[in-house]
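Two entries, shown back to back:
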Amino acid sequence: MIVPQALGWALVDSLWQDALAAAGLAALFALIPVRAARARYALATLTLALMLALPIATAVRLSGTSPWSSDVVTAAPAVAPGPLSGPGPRAVPAATRIRTALEPALPWVVLVWFAGVVALSLRLASGWLVARQLGRVGTSSVPDSCGEAVARLAVRLRISRPVRVFESAMVQVPAVIGWLRPVILLPASALTGLTPLQLDALLAHELAHVRRYDHLVNLGQAVIETLLFYHPAVWWVSQQVRDEREHCCDDLAVAVCGDAHFYATALLGMERLRVTPPAFALAAAGRGGSLMSRIRRLVAPVQTEIFPRWMAGVIAVTLALGGGVHLASGTTAPAVSDRGGRRTATLDSVIDRVEDLRYPDARHGAVKALGKRRDPRMVTPLLAIARRDADRKVQREAVEALGKVRGGAGVGALIDIARDHPSPDVRRKAVKTIGEIAPPDVALGLLEEVARRDPDDHVQQEAIEALGHLSSPQALRPLALPARGRPSPEVREEALEQYSRAAAPESALVLLVDRLANDRSTAVQVEAVERLADLPDGLGIAALRKAARFHPSPRVRTEARHRLEVYR
């Protein structure tokens, strides 16, 4: 399957896949206590990563295969080439209808998704630039006591990296920016409106973000939100990651200051001093957690609504839509009461699935996947595709797939194609495949017939080349006749080459000398010179010397002299 289609189906399937992942997280959250912030954070983070991995895995899987490669009803026995279908019932599977409706829209789905990713990437980049500017614009040094408090708290939290702290006129709440060189930014109101102990508690919270490398996780989280922006469940899971991240840092801050109630008063004090919420997205605590829910969790844990009702509705709808597409695409043709009816429905459904694909590349991928199965039951569908598809590339792929069918079951269909297919390219492909896979006695009759009767010179050449590769004494006469009597010089040239390779050297010498002297085409005469030079034991040297001296064609004389020089 081509990449845009694989990506389109991955986006469609992600609707139900990611909704199911979010529903699973909600179920786990209902079982895990609110106090177990680390476990809940780990689960939410893993779920968010899974939501990205699922569509990626789907796209990779679909780009290398086809949705038809494993969806073949096994009730039908092996079939031989013949009429495509009888007057019996014709099944139209639900998958065909759904995929027919969705297939033309997939490029638009991918285009809209790509436009959304670009727009949100620009937003993410602008947020990153703003975050970088926060550490450079409007900052000033903090009192020594504040710097000493940061150093003391860093030791208690076992942070080995140096952490700088600045007063900033650009932030309204304490924030951490940077990863390699983390910086804590404090609003002026925190330095003047909080007690030293309250400030220490808030600094401990920010240092907890540094210890946990939350800036990196938040950056990856923003990337996932950008790629999966269309899915409400992704935004809900991402918010759970932020909430639980804040809870984890709250727990570390409480462990440092020793009193949950006191830490809650510090949070309330900072909230009273804040004028407007922070506008940047890449600070470590970005949009993390409702203040009141954090405080309730610290001082009086209560049962809160884990899974909002509106989110449950969204997930139910996406599961119904996406899951319906997935299940319908995996259904097979309904069985008919009699065995012959089942076979007709099965084969027609396979043909329909390929024909309903709009793009030739998609049909080509589907036929290639059928060929990899090597299933004798696919002979009739492949023969139908080789005859009916509008794209020659797809027809040739169907011919190649027939050649891969186990036990040579596709040879009969290939013979039919080689005899009367309207396209010379497809007939030529069938002739080549027959020469490669058919038993010599079967191939010999067909190749001789094609070499004698096919109206296209290239198809005749292919048949003659295949005859030469049979290495059968019975193939010599079918090679000698076109070498003498075909109107096309290219065909006579090919026949001469194959005969000289397959026949005994003495027999080859007779034909080569005859063609060198009597053929009306200079190209065929030059071919005879080349083959005379290839005869073993210098058998053709005398004829080459004669041609080098007396042949009427300057080109032939030149070629003969060249071959004699090489031979010496």
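entry 2 starts here
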Amino acid sequence: MIRTERFSCSQAQAALLTRLPTPEDITKTIGLTEPEIETIVSTSGIPAGSFPIRYLGLPLNTRKLSLANCEPLLQQIKSKINSWTSKYLSFAGRQVLISTVIGGITNFWSGAFILPKECINLIDKMCNAFLWKGTLEGKYVARVAWEKVTTPRQNGGLGLRNLALWNRTSTIYELWWERNERMHQGKYRSTDSLWKRIKSMIKNKISALRPENNTAASAILQFWFSLDETS
């Protein structure tokens, strides 16, 4: 059981009515004070846990994502590339696998986090080596700079994804979702509805700062709520 919102005692009691707790259940919170956590734990009877944890394959932490947190992502990509090394793929075949399979793996993480620059550099390095040499072992000579490889085809590149740029873009989830709904489903949300959702996401992001810097986060929240009242 994971709790990331503010709960009153009555809410914690109501949560227990949904199902009986199991020995594997733990309560994890973000942005709550110690008395609030103690109230939830004593009311629910479910012990408190600590971060970091893994949820749906992604690391959850109260701090900024580190390179160590990204090790499962790097190992997954390395494992995929190593499994292709013995298949004697053509240059075009390797290009397709980087675009589709590696792109799909990084999409899952990019939609949830801003990846550390060191992690992005390591992924680019592995993809570059696999593209030009077909393996991660030994030295290789890239005939074209990676910056050019990730340039759109109409501009003379190979059209592979610029991971750093894609990562920044994909974290703007609500705008990306709205774009896809309009393009593929013909569905539209009003500007007010979209803006309210974006403001809610920003508040949640600010609230997540509290475990690291409660004073700064509280000040930012007060400022943001004051903007909300006047908007």
